[in-house]
Design a protein that fits this description.
mainly alpha, 0% strand
Length: 90
Amino acid sequence: MSKLSAFVKQQTLSGNMFFYLVSFRLVPMSPNWAMNVVFPHIGVPPLHFFFSLLLGLAPWNYIACSAGIILSNLVSRNEVMTFQNYLLVC
């Protein structure tokens, strides 16, 4: 843990920590629950943590909410894989 804390301190001082945090959040297979638990304990500044959480998870939340809205408007199973719905999700 001390090596990780030293890395966090070094990157925070050099100004790169925020970009590391946002890139970790944007990777689709990263365990966000683990990052939420670990980052405060290794010395990540609270403002960097908050804004990286806000910016990093906003695209995924937008996609999930948009897909849910499109799926809630469907009437039959045949409408699921139409070209128009595919474009709306993308």
